[in-house]
Design a protein that fits this description.
heterodimer, A: 186 residues, alpha/beta, fumarase, five-stranded mixed β-barrel, two-stranded antiparallel sheet, globular, B: 289 residues, alpha+beta, 60s Ribosomal Protein L30, Chain: A, 2 domains, five-stranded mixed β-sheet, four-stranded mixed β-sheet, 37% helix
């Protein structure tokens, strides 16, 4: 299986084909509803956001974490439903140059257009495969905005052979979800 | 209340651990069978990842999904007013010990106290009976699937076809969001509130136990076939496994109403039951009747 690693450049992203399966190595951050809201409201007000957001691989995930000595251990970390962030993601992509989103269930046409404009892909992780996916996270390198709670905080993670991930929305407007939806037999 | 061989709080911690770390046998077998039919490579890889994950969760004693959900409790038999407090304490302890993800927040301020409690939590449905036991079942339900819940107050003229169409549309419109393939719980009849409660409670019946009502059994099979012929597939990425089962509960309703509710569960349909008698506690995952 193809392995991709951070930092991901626009060319790396644009070379990924719809339906292709990949594994990911390197740095990623988690972010859900509250993290999106906070990052955007800080940026709109001219404030600073943690630098890890810029050009990031953003994992839609609210993990279960356990204290381990000075740091944290990942107990379970599968993807959350990405469509909840549909209204916030286009601005996240254009402001922060997010290169890849890892989630489940797919995202809207507007997100797909924002992805195509700057070069970003949507990688589908298997929903609920939280124990297997946690095995691909080798280290928790930090946490921001812990006041948002365990699920909503922004966790900074180091991944190794994280996946398998399916390229479900590519950087030229293609979407497996849309293809499936259009051919559904009702 | 039955004299307890161990505290109800301990029983609740064990129940939550069992439900979250071990997939019920009927769900596991349904996934295995589905993987045998799948010819679509993406679908097959999704089912493979799911089964692989379930085995690891059981072996490591970890929650199979990071969304350990909101647990809904169903209590049956003999019990008294101390039970709610015992269940709450058990849930708060399980949140620390297993651990479960602290999921409950104030709906307006979004404040999270970290213990899975809070106003109205946990949800407990009570059914007092004269049976010589206390039975507690738990159904932890994640939000990805719960958010796809639909209630329709249909016109009676829409009939069974209307019910079927409503259920199929609810599942297909949800797409990959509720982590298919799961189980579709459907409530038919009652009032709006009873209908939604029945749709969820229907998920307690294992997929290998047929509906006792022949008409509902046929309807379950019809909807099952319609959904699995749709092409939605595991995680909404295409394939021939969209649901593992369809479970219906019904009640009489007003002559002017035809309520239908759909409560989808994800592939990780988690449930566990403890039957407490004076002799001991029996645990199983085949749910209550």
């Amino acid at each position: 299986m193809k392995v991709i690693g951070s930092p991901l450049g626009e060319r790396d992203i644009r070379s990924l084909k719809l339906g292709e399966q990949v594994l990911f190595n390197g740095d990623m951050i988690t972010g859900r509803d509250e993290m999106h809201i906070r990052a955007l409201s800080l940026a709109r007000g001219g404030g600073d956001v943690p630098r890890e957001i810029l050009g990031s691989v953003l994992f839609h995930c609210g993990p279960i974490m356990r204290r381990s000595g000075e740091g944290w251990e990942v107990v379970a970390a599968g993807p959350t439903t990405s469509s909840r962030m549909d209204s916030l993601e286009p601005e996240m992509i254009s402001r922060f140059g997010i290169r890849a989103i890892i989630g489940k269930g797919g995202m809207s046409r507007e997100v797909s257009e924002a992805m195509a404009a700057t070069g970003c892909v949507y990688l589908a992780a298997t929903g609920g495969a939280a124990v297997s996916l946690a095995e691909g996270i080798k280290k928790v390198t930090g946490v921001e905005w812990e006041d948002l709670g365990m699920a909503e905080a922004m966790w900074k993670l180091k991944a190794e052979r994280f996946g398998p991930l399916t390229v479900a929305m590519d950087s030229s407007g293609g979407s497996l979800y849309e293809n499936v939806r259009l051919s559904l037999r009702r | 209340m039955i004299k307890m061989p161990e505290s109800t709080e301990d029983v609740v911690v064990k129940l939550l651990r069992l439900a979250n770390t071990k997939l019920p046998a009927d769900v596991g077998w349904a996934l295995e069978a589905a993987a045998g039919w799948e010819s679509d490579p993406t679908a097959y890889s999704q089912l493979g990842a799911i089964m692989d994950n379930s085995r690891k969760a059981e072996f490591l004693g970890r929650p199979m999904c990071q969304d350990t959900g909101l647990p809904v409790f169903y209590v049956r038999g003999k019990f008294d007013s101390s039970l709610a407090g015992e269940i709450s304490r058990g849930l708060a302890r399980a949140t620390q010990e297993i651990p479960l993800r602290p999921n409950t927040v104030d709906p307006i301020t979004r404040e999270n106290h970290g213990d899975n409690l809070g106003g109205g939590m946990p949800i407990i449905h009570y059914k007092p009976t004269d049976d010589p036991f206390t039975e507690i079942s738990v159904l932890p339900k994640g939000a990805g699937s719960e958010n796809m819940t639909r209630l329709g107050m249909l016109d009676p003229a829409e009939g069974v076809e209307g019910v079927k169409r409503f259920a199929v549309d609810a599942v297909l419109d949800a797409g990959g969001r509720p982590c298919p393939p799961g189980i579709v719980g459907i409530g038919i009849g009652g009032t709006s509130d009873l209908c939604v409660a029945m749709a969820k409670e229907a998920l307690l019946r294992p997929v290998d136990v047929p509906n006792e009502d022949p008409a509902l059994d046929r309807l379950e099979q019809d909807i099952f076939v319609a959904l699995n012929s749709s092409g939605l597939g595991p995680m909404g990425l295409g394939g021939s496994t969209t649901v593992l089962g369809v479970r219906i509960r019904s009640a009489y309703c007003h002559t002017a109403s035809l309520p239908v509710a759909v409560n989808i569960s994800c592939w990780a349909t988690r449930r566990a039951t403890a039957r407490i008698t004076a002799e001991g506690v029996e645990y199983h995952q085949g749910a209550a009747p």
